[in-house]
Amino acid sequence: MKTIYIRKHILIASACLMATAALLTACGESWLGGDPLGRLTEDDIPAGSLEGQAFGIYAGLRSEGTSGLPYVAIHNIRSDDADIGGGPGDEAAAAPIFDHFGYTKDYWLVNNYWTNHYSLIALANNLLAAADSIATPTDLTAINVAEAKFARAFAYFNLVRTFGEVPKIDFPIVTQDQAIVPKSTIPEIYALIDEDLQEATAVLPLTWEDRFTGRLTLGAAYALQAKTYLARSNWSGALGAAQAVIGSGQYDLSVPYDMIFREESENSRESVFEIQAVYTQNNREMGITYASRQGLRGAGDFNLGWGWNIPNPVLLDAFEEGDPRKDVTVLYSDSVNAPYGERIPGGLDRPYWNKKVYTNPSIRASAGSRQGEWFNFRVIRYADVLLMAAEAANEIGGESNIDLALDYLEQVRARARGANSGVLPEVTTRDQEELRQAIRHERQVELGMENERFFDLVRWGIDVETMHAAGETSYQQRHRFIPIPQIEIDRSGGVLEQNPDYP
Amino acid sequence: MKNLLTSCLLSVWVWTMAYGQQPAVNGKVIDGATGQGLPGVTITVKGVATATQTDAAGNFTIQAAGADTLVFRFLGFATQEVPINDQTSLNVTMEDEGTALEEVVVIGYGTAEKRDLTGSIAQVSGSEVADRPSANPVASLQGRVAGVQVVNSGRPGAQPDVRIRGTNSINNVRPLYVVDGILNDNIDFLNPADIESMEILKDPSSLAIFGVRGANGVIAITTKRAKAGQLNFNFNSTVGLKHVTNRMAMTDAAQFRELYDEQLANQGSPPFNYENWAANTDWQDQIFRQGVLNYNNLSVSGASENNRFYMGLGYTLDQGVIKHEQLEKITLNINDQLNITENFRVGINFSGYRSDLPTPNSLTDAAVASALRAAPIAPVFNDAYGLLHTLPDFQRAQISNPLTNVEYRKNTNIRHQYRGVGSIFGEIDFLQHFTFRTSFLVDYGFNPERSYIPLINFYNPDLAGEDKTDRVGLVTTVNQAQSTEAKIQSDWLLTYKNTFGEHSLTALVGYTTYSNRYEQVTASRTQGSGDPIPNDPDKWYVGIGASDSQTGNGTAWERRTISYLARVLYNYGGKYLLNASFRRDGSSAFIKNNPWQNFGSIGAAWVISEERFWGTESFIDNLKLKGSWGVLGNQNTGDDYRYPMFPLLVANSSAVFGDNVFPAYEPQYIPDPNLQWETVTAWEAGFELAGFENRLTLEGVYYSKLTDHIMVEVPGALGTKPGLRNQGSIKNSGVELAASWNQQLTDDLSFTIAANLTTLSNNVESLVDEGYQIIRDASRTAVGFPIGYFYGYVHDGIYQNDADITNSPTNTINEVLPGDIKYKDVNGDNVINEQDRTLIGNPTPDFTYGAALNVVYRQFDLGIELMGVQGNDIFRDWNRNQFAQFNFQEDRLGRWTGEGTSNWEPIGNTARANNRLISSYFIESGGFVRIRNIQLGYQFASELATRLRLKSMRLFVNAQNPFTFARNTGYTPEIGGSAIAFGVDNGTYPVPAIYTFGVNLNF
After folding, report:
1. DSSP 3-state of B451
2. Second label for A428, Cα 20 to 30 Å away, from A17, A31, A235, B555?
3. Interface contact B917-A106, CB threshold 8 A
4. In this structure, what DSSP letter does residue B406 have?
5. Which of B831, B816, B812 has the alpha carbon at shortest distance from B911?
6. Quick one: pLDDT at residue B379?
């Protein structure tokens, strides 16, 4: 009896099991399906919108290689008027490379510079490829395209000045082999830069609504274009581009010189191209390292950074007697410094520090950091544009151009002079060579520690003599270019060839 | 609580006890092993529905005719059929299945007799891992099984790096774990004391049934079931101490000053002022301690003919060798199988686990690394301020006081894991030869974590002003994270088993589904502009802190597979064996392409010793020649590629304009529309031999595995995103040998000696395109070389003087001076440049070996295990990339200081970039021999145990890793890593020696 009952139950149970099995099996392949959980894919982007990708480019500008120590080391520490700084260990390791030009083929700063710049190029290329597939572009998509082209031009301009011949990647890389390409010539790279900036200057808006403060504008594109022309001594091109910025009405020198490098003057009328950063206790991801890598290297409350890139006596001596810009450029150890009245302790590794990254103590307190991650990086400011225009005008020559050059130069000196009429007398010479020297001098002191000096020396062709005069006698013309990181050559399987100056 | 459990248990047991009947034939059933009566044995009359069971003393009576045959059945024992032959009284002795039958091993989706298989499966019994002081049972496999390379970590509870027959893939090398049929990627939840046996499946014919998950090999674990007989309680307890035996040899304060002063002078730097830095601190002493170990396990089991019940409870306390580091874990395991009828069985199995995880690796790693790096001249603590002392300014940028993480951040991470792994099954036999089994398995894990970042202040004598408090950590933060992971598996298996004359056949078809889903949410708050969040664990919830500082995040992923499987095990007369299996897998990973792929294997064996011509006189009892071939798969796409076919976007980058943040999306990687599984084509050939009345066993196998379509994360060159591609193949091959000899020398003395040897050869056959390399610092993966080999310059001495430099090939990489490393001109072009880099080391050993000796003398037993690794290299990396000055290794005392002083250690001068290049200067030999384990036990005489009302009692002392003979400078030669970068010593956590004492009681 019992057994029979059990048998019956088993039959029922088995039938149920079989039925369930059949059901489950029937689900089949659709059971495997399903979209990624909690993730957006490219298919989820609103059709025709490139805005998200354009924002990604701005994020790319915040990378270490484009706004941190690699940038500073390559653009400024190499110059005659700045040194490595940092601690004694840093100096021992990096000074032979960036101060004394014993370049190596594998140093993290240079590797990083290369990688981050090509990342920026890749972000731009991806956006441009996506733009090609949009059937009906809007005004905004056209602007996004222009932003990408600006970023690509900015990256290539840095690369071509730093490494010389580099691979030209102007397409999205989908498979590994596409990235293995030989170098292009310097003129080929400049051709791409010109083409990109042509479009950027045609499309970028003059200004943005408030919520997009600091976003790329027409002024930024023209200013970068002027710089790229100047690098090739294309004086008329440079003058035209610089004057487009000057004539835009968006910029002036109303910010006093000692206010430019304060947090409150970020995105001011002075600012033409500024890499944007935000850092608070609850948002620690959107900062940049520009200030922290250069900040004063002290202990306790004065541990403001790594203390790399410090002014040296060449820069201090370059300032004219009484030039107020000197004390805005140089932060002195063992003394009380304006504007915050902090007493910088003595006994530090270095007597001078870069003051153009000196942060506001009250922001340090509220952000819970001393490292200045919130501090925007002023890449191109209006005074630079004026001096570029002055230089180009002087080089073209002719009375009216000399008038222009003198006027632009005086604008910059007048602002620096401020209310103190006893210093920085107006330059009045109409001799081209004298004016050239005056403008070159003005660039050095106005833009001291601002990453312009090394490439200025190179394009003026006075790099070798200036370095030797500053005691860096190992500098030779080949040191204009840094060897390509060995790891990139290894990755390419040898398709990418080293600069022949570095066998 | 305990009472409640016991009464539950008893009621289950009582419920399963038996019925009664009328007399006719009577007798007694005796347990062959103990000579005692066996209760609960079911006796049926063959062909009639009459049945009974033996009573508590093993006696039975049953109504049956004199011509009938009685069938005696009892779980765990061999079933016997005894004709009555008109007797009225019958005594039957039943033998344990284990001794009566051939060795039964777990194969995928079933079990089989080892003699019927053509593959290579190694078995390790649970008792061999249970009393070892490893919270993770896999750690105890080290050196025991040929073909299994285990690299242990000294961290409490850490999963070892296990590689079965080499490194088969770039993304994942971990084997698959199968616990009582549940597929899993880790067995953290398992108590070693609950393990009955572990089987390691190595060859294609055993693995193909696991299809896409079988490529890296399988470790199948069977947990304990109740054994036949009466109620059994087992209690065992182990206590012990852990100790770091091999400290790293670092300079003390005087030696440090000597080297540092000299270095500063060589660099032309100003001398360091030691005024505030006059201590002589051994930082390793400061962070290490003797860790305590304590395992306690209690199990209860009971079985009757219709029911088998087992319950185990375990508690583990495992302290790390770093102060305040401790793992606590509670496990419980319940299983029950009920025979509803003779033909229909159901069962449940449940493992529960709760752990309190130790200090996160990130903190302990940093503590170990900084203890090696911190200067011995720094004091530890300042009493007046009650603060840790800061390190000298030449160190602060890169390292801080090693006790920062150990003391200031002690117990600031409260991390728990809860896990329930449960399954039910139903199994029915029908039509004589068929068995249908279905099971549902769920593994649900819940992991709540909370952490706190305190304010961090140091005493800093360098500060200007009165107050020497150096405020380094300015903001308190609380973080909370909760994650769940659910793995759900269903199996539907139909087995057919029959014998036709000499032909014997077992066939299986099945269907199985698997899904794995993970979800996590995290949140954090800081103090904002308010007061610091208190350093009190009760406050560490994200409800505390400034609400405007709150951030949150979350992730999720799911992976599913559907599989059809089939297998045939055939033999003819026990002489000719054929195994074949097939599996068709569909995976959600490849859903956009073709998600389906077929895998399979075929194996054959010839048991020569069964042949008629094989004389019975031979000293060889068993000789089997075997071979198998198969294709296995791998869908391990790595953590970053949960959805490799989808063009995922990441939002972790954002645009900033002014103070406004705008989310930006960029592709996470470049998806490959043609991505597919990795396939491993493997074969093996070998033999199994037993001889001298089974005293000798010998197994030897040659194996070869070719992994094709390797999923390589091709890094984005020139700034592009990386992407996963099937581009490459790796070959692993080698020989495995295992031998053992056991002998009963006298009645009192017996011994077993066993040894194994595995050779490994690993070669990358193809990778992306010609000349392509995957580069992770010193580790490279390239065609024609072993995976993850070390690539760099060859140290060829030290330049002794200027003439030496002039007379040597010109170094064009760096300017060199006397005292710098001279690199070898490998290509002989008289110039030292990038072309002279070459293979300077291989992290894969040439061979690994193990040996064990067990001696039993009366009540004493002694076991000694030894293991070793030979022919691999270690790359010393922990002090290579220093931008702050680290403490020196003692070897640096022998640096070059002038002509003829050293031809290996370069001059002390960090300005010499030449000496930092990746070269054989950083290569160390990774080979070692280790006394892995020594155990001495004493089994109390049964009379004594009985007097104590115990069935048995054993005491033991155990020493694990007491002696290691290694030549590297790090804590341990055992350095794991990822598939493409391993053997790199970044200041690896030490593997301690562990001394334990334990007791094991049965009652």
Report:
1. strand
2. A235
3. yes
4. I
5. B816
6. 96
Q: How far apart are CA A373 and CA B319, in angstroms?
A: 39
Sort out which chain A residues have CB atoms less than 8 A from B834's CB and list them: 105, 486, 489
For residue B143, the model assigns a pLDDT of 82
pLDDT in tens, A13-72: 666 656 655 555 545 667 787 788 888 887 777 766 888 889 999 999 999 999 999 999
CA B980 to chain centre: 18
Partners of A271 in the beta sheet?
A381
Q: How close does chain A come to B515, measured CA to CA in Å?
A: 9
What φ, ψ does residue B726 adopt, rounded to 5°? -90, 90
Q: What is the pLDDT of residue B229?
A: 67
Taking the C-alpha atoms of residue B217 and residue B164, their distance in angstroms, rounded to an integer, is 6
The predicted pLDDT at position B781 comes to 87
Q: Which residues of chain B have pLDDT under 50?
A: 1-23, 98-101
Among all residues of chain B, which has the CA nearest to that of A168? B718
Q: Which own/partner pairs from B799-808 qualify as long-range (CB within 8 Å, at least 24 positions apart)?
A: B800/B899, B800/B900, B800/B903, B801/B899
| Mean of pLDDT values over A204-211 | 95
Among A13-27, A119-133, A367-381, B535-549, name the one with the lowest average pLDDT: A13-27
Q: Which residue has the higher pLDDT, B878 or A220?
A: A220
B54: left (phi over 0), alpha (psi -120 to 50) or beta: beta
User: In 3D, which of B436, B443, B444 has the Cα closest to residue B511?
Assistant: B436
Interface test with A, best of B551, B720, B772, B832 (most A CBs within 10 A): B720
Closest-CA residue of B relative to A302 is B463
Global confidence as pTM: 0.82
User: What's the first-to-final CA gap in chain B, in angstroms?
Assistant: 20
CA distances to B377, B889, B901, B903 from B256, in Å: 8, 9, 19, 21
Q: Nearest CA to A371 among A287, A311, A450?
A: A287
- Helix (H), strand (E) counts: chain A: 20, 8
Chain A residue whose CA is closest to B428: A14
Q: How many Å apart are CA B928 and CA A324, to the nearest integer?
A: 68
CB atoms A10 and B340 under 8 Å: yes
Domain ranges, ordered by start, for chain A: 292-379
Are residues A115 and B653, on separate chains, in Cβ contact within 8 Å? no
Q: How far is A406 from chain B (nearest CA, A)?
A: 34
E strands present in B658-694: 660-667, 678-691
Phi, psi of A277 (to 5 degrees): -140, 150
Of B462, B549, B720, the CB nearest to A299: B462
Cα angle, residue B338 at apex, residues B334 and B339 outer, rounded to 5°: 155
What is the distance in angstroms between the Cα of B136 and the nearest Cα belonging to chain A?
A: 32
Which pLDDT band holds residue A417 (cuts at 50, 70, 90)? very high
Flag if B647 and A41 touch (Cβ within 8 Å). yes
- Cross-chain Cβ contact A58/B656 below 8 Å: yes
Q: How confident is the model at residue A9 (pLDDT cuts 50, 70, 90)?
A: low
SS3 assignment for A1-62: CHHHHHHHHHHHHHHHHHHHHHHHHHHHHHHHCCCCCCCCEHHHCCCCCCHHHHHHHHHHHC
Q: Do A104 and B660 touch (CB under 8 A)?
A: no
**Which of chain B's residues have a Cβ under 8 Å away from the Cβ of A33?**
588, 591
Q: Which residues pair with B199 in a beta bridge?
A: B123, B220
Instruction: Kindly state the average pLDDT of the residues A220-248.
Output: 97
CA angle, B264 as apex, B259 and B269 as ends, to 5°?
Answer: 170
Res. A6: pLDDT tops 60: no
Interchain pair B909, A42: CB under 8 A: no
**Exposure of B365 in the CB half-sphere (CA atoms within 13 A):** 8
Chain A nearest CA to B306, separation (Å): 14
